[in-house]
Structures are given as C-alpha cells and as structure tokens.
Design goal:
homodimer; 10 strands; two-stranded antiparallel sheet; DNA-binding; 45% helix; 328 residues; alpha/beta
DNA sequence: GACCCCGATGAACAAACGTGCAAGGAGACC
DNA sequence: GGTCTCCTTGCACGTTTGTTCATCGGGGTC
C-alpha cells in the first residue's frame, strides 16, 4: 500500500476512516458497520485491513513511564540509550527474529519521523527488512538520504538500494536522495576525488544535516566471515586487515573496534559511509539489531556513542548486558 | 478498571504489556501468544482486554490532515473550531447517540489531557456520560476542578458530582478539587457573600488557571422545558425570566443567547458556574454535544466563542451547519 | 460490438476470538 | 482444620473475523 494509492481513492479512504471509527472507537461489530455502510461484512473486513495498512488507524503500545522493563533500564543506566526491547521467544530462528524486530522498528520509526525532517538510511539487510514493514505516514518537506554506497544485489532477499530508498520515500511522502557510489573503494584516492565532485558534496551536505539515522550493524568479522560482503568488494586481504586492526563491526560500511574507536582504522578511508562523527551529531540515531551474533558490534557501537535509540530483540539485549557486565 | 488497580498488580501489567506487544505490534495470534506466555488462549484474550481497558494500548483513528471531512471543514471555516464528527446512523436514539459521542469524547480527552494540567469539568449528564468511558492515563501534578455546583441527584442515570469527579481523577491519577456550592442560588447576594470566602476563592482561582475545560450544553429552554433542572433549583418563574431574556442554553449553569451574549442576563448572577470570560481564556475548551435538540444552544455557544474543540454526532453537526447557513 | 483484463463484491468456509461456566486455589475468618 | 468467599484458570460453545473463490461489471483494445 503506497501513499500514491491512498491518494488516488479518496472515497475509499473516507469509508475506511468511517469504518475504523466505528470499529476501533465505538467497538461495533463488522456486521453492524456493514449495515451502516450498506455493504457486506467482508468488505468491511477488507476496509479495516486497508485502514490499518495505510496508517489511518494508529495502534501503539506504550509502557507506563514509571515501569520500564529491567532490560530497558539497564541500557539507560549503562549507555544512556533508550532501548526498545522486542519480546521474542528464545528458540526463534534468526530470520524470524529479524523479521519481528524489523516490524517493531518500523512502527517506532513511524512515530519518530515527521515533516521537515531528513532521514539517513544505511544500506543493509536490516534496513531492508524494516522497509518491508513500514506504515505510510504523510509528511511534508521531508527527505530520505542514502548514507552509503550500494553493495551488490546478488545477496539473497536484499532489495536494491534504490528500491529500499523508494519504499521509505513512498511511505512517508518524502524526497529520496540517492547516493550513487560503490560501497567500498579499492583506492582511497578515488574516493577523495569523487568526494570533491559537487554532486557528491551535495549529498554529503544533506547527510550532515539529517535529523534521524536508521542503521543496522555489520558483523562480518565475528567468527566465520559472512559472505554478505564477498561480492567483489572485500577480499581475504581486506578481512585480514580489518581483523588485525581489531574491527568488530560496521555502521554503513564504516568499521569500529570493541571500544568504539574507529578513526585510526585505515580501511575506513575506502568506505563510502559517513564519518562516525557526522553520525554522532544526529539527534536520533536508531540502531536495529537482531540476533546474538551481533552482540560484539553492538557493544562497540554503544561504546562509541553511535546509538541514541536501540531496537533489539530480548535475547540479544540480555546477552549484550551480560557480556558488558562481565567485561567491566 | 482504576489506576489504583493497575498499580496494584505490576506483574499482570507487565504480562499484559508483553501480550499487547505481540498481538498489536507483531500481529501474532492469541494462540501463539498463549504458548509464549505459557498460559491458555482465553487468558491471553482477557489479558488483552485488560491492556485496552487500562490504556496500555492506545488505538487512535486519525484522519489525514489534508482530507478532513466536509463537515469538519465547515466548522473550521465558519467558527474557527476543530470539530470531531462522530459517525452515527441517523435513526439512532438520542441515548445511543449520546453514548457513542461520549465514547469518542473520552478518547479525545485522553489524547489532550496530560501532566501538569488542570481540567475543569462542568457537571451535567453529558460530562457524566463521558465519565463512563474514560481510559486510564498516568499523569503527574495534574488536577481536576469542578466548575459549577451540583444539581440534585434524583435525575435518572446521572452520577453524583463527587462520583464523576472521582472517576476522572482516578482515571488520570489527578487531584480532585470539589466545588461544594449549590447549582443555583436563590439570592444573588448569598453567592456574592460565599464568593468572598477564602475556601471558595481558592477554587475560583484554580478554575481561572485551568488548561482544559470539558462541558456539555444545557438545552432546557428550547421547546418543552425539561425536568432536568426542576429539582428545587429552578421554578416556572425562573424559566420565564430566562426565556424572556432570550437565553437558548447554558454552559455549567451560565446562560447565553443565540448570538452568544450573556453578560446582561440577570439570572446569571445566581449561577454557580464560572463567568464565560474565564472559560474563553482557557486554551482547550472541549464541548460535547449529542442530539438535534441541542442545535440552538450549540450555535449560541459557537457564536460566543466558548468552544475550541467540538465533539458532536454527525446528524447534529449537519443540522447545526444547515441552520447556521440558513440564518446568515 | 467482441473481447479481455482487472479490480471490486458477496457467499461460504475455516480460523480466530470472547465469554459463561465449572473447577481449582489462595487467603480471611471462625 | 474447616469453610466461606473471591479471584483466577482453562474448557466449550457460539460468535466474530479473515480469506478464498466464483462472479460481476466497468474500462480499454482490437
């Protein structure tokens, strides 16, 4: 359900609105609503589905402020971060886990992003997963900017960068700002040259002014090297270089260590993503994390102050807190 | 479900919160949630009911701002008032109509009222009906103040003033400020004398500082004199005096004319409610109206600028706009 | 006009849900 | 310890809801 679709059918929207009022506010049954609208119950069911899909009805669960979960309090105390813990049974597969976290993240993003804002998107499987669950929301004068160049598209289930960007822009009625550069450069000087181009500098300038950043964490370095980046961008030598530099993960192609440091990792001058100082200047830095494999990069990102709001599944959150407490 | 109850059972609240997350955010079925929580599906159903009742989950239907209903636009254009039209089939009885409008009003009030605010309540059957549908919401340092003295309690289905006040205070965790005076004075000088008392002046001072006012409209003067006020407070002579003064209705015992004027209605110096200038200084003045009989007082209140937000059923709204347009 | 395509519709079915009810359990009082 | 009361639980049932499917009707195309 795109915003354009929603606008193309004002009567349908009006009826859906009416049905939603009657159903969600006045607690009528669909049967009763069908009578009022002179249609069949099935149509009412569909109408309500449409109302939910298109964001006409907004359902949010809010914990009373005086009783945040123990885990959320732990993140606040240790890292000064607002955590949004997604309850997930422990035996859930990593794919389901990501899906459920992404769903919560999408709702949260919807409540944060608004008119006159700029949203920066890191390109990766996590941000792609969130894209699948966005709820439309009308905004004005807002834009979406891509934070790092696109990796290849052969990797399973990950959408094209432009496709992702378009989904966000469509859901929020925002202007999409592409960033047409490779994910990683082979030669740092190429990057420097490109960064002097006016078309690129314009994008960099927009990035610098973003109000909200949304990103996942790369964890290619922990344990077995994942194949995600093996598509012509990183080779074995690169991985070795990163490993020997002590990198534990990346945000938008920029790598950092367990202690949150990143400035002196040479590899980063080949990355297309924004300097992490730029990121740290953003007021809302929403990090979406699912799966225990991401605990090391998560702790690094937290140490580096890269995160202001964290959406994470319960198990990973618990593991992160335990590991942090064990190390300090 | 009172706020006190909600606090007395933190584990229940926590479980309800979890269930609500899984149900409303992650779209799991109750069966699945039951498994995660190691309980039966029925319990989950009840848990979710509790979560809704106690305001843990907040469902709101919001019209896209670019497409308000035609009626809402009409109210904005003609009176500068934000209208909240409650869809109700035309053949609905006045009692059902009031009930459905009150439900919407309660939800709206919940979205407006917050910490550090003072809410003024006119005492009447409409405000009483709203009380029945309040959703709990936690606030701090807020208070509820009664705007006018209590009429008698013999009239059907209307709660005691203190009972109403208590419901609001309980739902919002606010301090309740009673106003122990009669609805109408026989002798204006009694009122003047009482108004000099420090205990009364304290309440009047609070009234003067309120941020939100919630009131219905009295329509005792249109057509057949209703028996609502016939409880020892108003007699035939009073009604005649009001009729000859041109009064069309009242807000919190203070009467006004069709053109919105009220200052020179002698009867008002016997009323216990606040001067309408005090009311007009309140930033949110929420008026709840149901039933076509209230069209004349509604138009008067609109003319007098007494209303900032209007919650009204569709039929009455349409009638009011039609009548206004016909007269001008 | 004939044809096709696509989206909308209501009937029918299966899944999901709310609630009355009886059983069980914890505490209060005797 | 008995027992009385009140609250909670899970089951069973009837109701409500989501979804599939066949059908219909309104454009667009030849």
């Amino acid at each position: 359900m795109s915003l354009a679709d929603a606008l193309s059918q004002p009567d349908k929207t009006a009826e859906a609105l009416r049905a939603a009022q009657l159903y969600y506010v006045q607690d009528l049954t669909m049967e009763a609503i069908a009578q009022e609208l002179h249609t069949s119950r099935s149509s009412v069911s569909r109408l309500l589905g449409y109302a939910r899909e298109s964001g006409l009805v907004d359902i949010q669960v809010r914990s009373p402020h005086d009783m945040p979960s123990r885990l959320e309090a732990a993140f606040r105390d240790r890292f000064g971060v607002t955590a949004h813990i997604v309850p997930v049974p422990d035996h859930t597969s990593d794919i389901d886990r990501l899906e459920r976290v992404a769903l919560s993240a999408a709702r949260f993003l919807g409540s944060v992003f608004d008119s006159n804002m700029t949203l920066g998107l890191a390109w990766g499987s996590t941000v792609s997963a969130v894209a699948r669950h966005l709820t439309p929301k009308r905004t004005h004068n807002s834009q979406i900017v891509q934070l790092n160049g696109a990796a290849n598209t052969r990797t399973s289930g990950i959408l094209y960068a432009s496709e992702i960007l378009h989904r966000y822009a469509d859901a929020y009625g925002a202007y999409a700002q592409q960033f047409a550069v490779p994910a990683f450069f082979d030669d740092p000087s190429t990057k420097l040259a490109l960064w002097r181009e006016r078309s690129i500098r314009r994008v960099l300038e927009i990035q610098r002014r973003m109000d909200v950043a949304l990103f996942g964490l790369g964890s290619q370095l922990s344990g077995v090297p994942s194949h995600v980046y093996v598509g012509g961008y990183l080779d074995d030598a690169d991985f070795e270089a990163l490993a020997s530099a002590g990198a534990v993960g990346d945000v938008a192609t920029v790598f950092f260590r367990a202690d949150g440091s990143w400035r002196d990792i040479p590899f980063n001058n080949r990355a297309s993503g924004p300097d992490l100082d730029v990121l740290r200047n953003v007021s809302r830095r929403i990090c979406v994390v699912a799966g225990a494999a991401k605990v090391p990069p998560l702790l690094g990102a937290l140490a580096g102050g890269l995160i202001s709001d964290l959406v994470v599944d319960e198990g990973t959150a618990r593991a992160a807190i335990e590991q942090h407490d064990a190390q300090s």
